[in-house]
Amino acid sequence: MIHFQAHGKLLLSAEYIVMHGATALAVPLKKGQSLEIKHTESNLIFSWKAYFNNKLWFEADYDSATLKILDTSDRDMALGLKNLLEACIELMPSFQESLFRKDATTRLDFSPDYGFGSSSTLISLLAEWAEVNPLDLHFMVSEGSGYDVACALADGPISYKLRDTLPQYRHIPFRPSFHENIWFAWLGRKQATEKHLREVAPRIKPGFETIYKFSELTRAMIEARTLDEFRKVMDAHEDELSKILGMEKISSSFRSLPGSMKSLGAWGGDFVMIATEADRETLRKYLEENGIQILYSYKELVYEKDNV
């Protein structure tokens, strides 16, 4: 049996603008997705099963030679997986042979609704199995920046940018002394990121000054030494992006929050980051009163190899 593991992700800064060359801050998560490859006796059918909370949430059978979909619980997902497998074969033709006498099983550590990267972790896992560059695979099948795929195999927080459309990233020492005051909460709405990006793309045409401004906000977020400094960067980031998107800040819906709140990734869904001096119980009670049930601390969620 072959086993692979990939980390989920959260983008803390420069959402949207990272697509245009701004430097972004992203963190890999302790929660992720695994892939197991098992040998079978069947040379004709390649079977794929996906589990979350030990419950089957997707399955598909393919013709091993042609990748024709023979049976599936979700045809759209099966087609997406087929495209990924075909892209792997295009990058590494010998990978086709790996589908004979093999079955694949994935297991998600997080809900597919969370926006933690069920797609990016899958790309990373398949790239590792096929022995191809995960970012090469990503850019064959996706229009996103690729930061999420970079996070999938990262050992800790990274800075990420596209320079002349080519990805550049490096691991950075980001573990604020006030990390116990940083929280992540799920708004309860799944955001279809690529569809959303296509809808807002016409509004986002940043010039050099805007790209530089967001890169500087990322730098300031990384270098913040106090909770107050960090909150000011969060608030400034939200103000600037709100103007560009023509959308209300998420904090507008939580005006009495005892702290600062920032959208993560595509605005309007998924997770938010909260920086506050309030303790967990006070914050949890406030969020529950406002319809938010899922809350993680920085330590519970962010993966750092040296602080597992």
Total of DSSP H or I helical runs spanning 4+ residues: 9
**Overall residue-averaged pLDDT value:** 93
Content of β-strand: 25-35%
Which CATH-level-2 architecture of the largest domain?
2-Layer Sandwich
Task: Please report the distance between the alpha carbons of the first and last residues.
Answer: 26 Å
- Label the structural class: alpha+beta
Sequence stretches where pLDDT stays below 50 over 5 or more residues:
none
Radius of gyration based on Cα positions: 20 Å
Specify the overall morphology: globular
CATH topology of the largest domain: Ribosomal Protein S5, domain 2
**Main beta sheet:** 8 strands, mixed
CATH class placement of the largest domain: Alpha Beta
- Care to count the β-strands? 12
Q: Estimate the helix proportion, in percent.
A: 25-40%
In total, the number of domains comes to 2
Order of helices and strands: EEEEEHEHHHEEEHHHEEHEH
